[in-house]
Write a structure and sequence with these properties.
It is elongated and about 125 Å long. It has helices at residues 12-16, 20-23, 33-45, 68-71, 74-77, 88-97, 104-118, 142-151, 175-189, 204-217, 230-251, 259-281, 299-306, 336-341, 362-370, 408-414, 416-425, 434-444; strands spanning 125-130, 161-166, 311-320, 323-332, 346-356, 375-378, 396-397. It has 452 residues and is α/β, with parallel strands linked by helices.
Length: 452
């Protein structure tokens, strides 16, 4: 018996209207294994958002994988380790190409420092210094290096250069004489010393003394941890720039593909260099190298400014026959007069005494005259044990055997920088009053048993 329409009767027309793959999956044609593999490969090859190469974390632009210009941007595609072509020869060449200079410091260097250094018997050498150090600083922030390279920034450009002084032709091997050479050059040129690297270190005692001197000269209260090297200070400024670029990217859409944005980025780096240069250039202020704070490109430049004693008393000792001549001087460092004289020390005579060694009271008079002075300079072949009290070897100058002559003032003038370094490396112990020192020395000489 036939089924009526509407009661489930199947007709040709109704069968054709039902897609077999949806209503009758059991009747669908099965693919062969080869066909299924080909279909899978086709699906995998179809481009999707996930197929766009990954964007680096920390990129400094508002990049988007949905933008074709971002996908093909050379800044985004630059995944190689950052390379910084830090070349002082090219830097010097670019500096020379910018002549005649209009910058005040550059003109001073060209017109004063170079003629002065070239006039020396042992000519000075000059160093083209990267204000933003390429390898020590810039290279340490890879993402900024990539962006700067994309924007056309040149680490060796004139804008990143300052000329400084280096060692003269007779640069010594002895360590303390290296300091003497550096201080002589800085005193005459009023330009920072470039030799020695930009990541120098100080021991905690020297940092404490630098903090004290910064407090006196710059009126800034610091603790030892505040003392930073040149490399650390520049690194901080470059890190700040990176953070500002990150914040800008988060606030608004920023793309460095335009020439305007490229120039802005290069301008920001040049501005940092200009600010640093202004500090280094302040070293030329007569008698005020501390105006460069906190930027000192070398340890010796820092020490020259803050680690040298400002004042000290010395006594010259000269024995001739039965007579002992003593002269006391107050030595002063870093006054306007020093800068004008181009000397390291101003010598102020404070008194002279000539003692007769055959007189029974000579030891009393000697001790009274020397008061609490601990630094003694022995002239000619005067025995180092001639005084009635002991003088530690470290406080005896000169440390070696040499011709000194008999004129104490002349010897001090001729060796002022070496004496300054000698004083720097031999700071006196805790202050002792003249009265107490006299009593101790009398006791030591067997002249007085009283001691405090």
């Amino acid at each position: 018996m036939q089924k009526e329409a509407g009661m489930g009767k199947t007709t040709t027309a109704s069968a054709a209207a039902v897609p077999l793959t949806q209503e009758n999956p059991a009747l669908a044609k099965k693919n062969t294994p080869q066909e299924e593999e080909a279909a899978a490969e086709k699906t995998a090859a179809a481009p999707t958002e996930e197929d766009v190469p990954s964007f680096r974390a920390g990129m400094l632009c508002s990049c988007s994988p949905r933008k074709a210009e971002c996908v093909h941007c050379t800044y985004r595609l630059d995944n190689d380790p950052p390379a910084v072509d830090n070349d002082s020869m090219i830097l010097r060449k670019n500096y020379n190409a910018a002549k005649p200079h209009t910058d005040r410091y550059d003109r001073y260097f060209d017109e004063v420092v170079v003629p002065l250094g070239d006039s020396k018997e042992n000519k000075w050498r000059y160093a083209a210094h990267h204000l933003i150090s390429g390898n020590q600083v810039f290279k340490q922030i890879p993402e900024l290096v990539r962006l700067a390279h994309f924007c056309g920034y040149d680490i060796n450009a004139y804008a990143n250069c300052i000329m400084l002084v280096g060692y003269p032709e007779d640069y010594p091997d002895v360590e303390h004489m290296k300091s003497v050479s550096a201080y002589d050059v800085m005193s005459e040129s009023r330009v920072q010393w470039h030799v020695g690297g930009h990541s120098y270190r100080f021991d905690i005692e020297e940092k404490a003394e630098i903090c004290r001197q910064v407090g006196i000269r710059n009126k800034k209260k610091l603790v030892p941890s505040d003392i930073k090297t040149y490399a650390e200070l520049v690194q901080t400024e470059i890190e700040k720039l990176k953070q500002r670029l990150m914040a800008k990217k988060d606030r608004q859409m920023i793309c460095y593909a335009t020439e305007q944005e490229k120039q802005k980025l290069c301008g920001k780096l040049d501005h940092i260099a200009a600010e640093i240069k202004s500090k280094l250039a302040a070293f030329t202020d007569v008698g005020k190298p501390h105006h460069s704070f906190p930027y000192f490109v070398s340890k010796e430049a820092y020490r020259y400014t803050y680690a040298l004693p400002r004042t000290a008393k010395v006594v010259t000792v000269h024995k001739e026959g039965t007579q002992l001549s003593l002269e006391c001087y107050r030595l002063e460092h870093f006054t306007e007069a020093i800068a004008q004289q181009k000397n390291s020390l101003v010598l102020n005579p404070k008194g002279t005494i000539i003692l007769n060694l055959s007189d029974e009271r000579w030891r009393w008079d000697c001790i009274d005259f020397c008061k609490n002075v601990v630094y003694f300079i022995y002239l000619d072949d005067t025995p180092r044990t001639i005084l009635p009290f002991a003088v530690e070897k470290m406080y005896q100058f000169p440390p070696d055997v040499r011709e000194t002559g008999r004129d104490g003032m002349k010897f001090l003038q001729q060796n002022d920088t070496e004496i300054l370094v000698w004083l720097r490396d031999r700071p006196a112990s805790a202050y002792t009053s003249p009265v107490l020192m006299i009593r101790r020395r009398r006791k030591e000489a067997g002249l007085d048993s009283e001691v405090m």
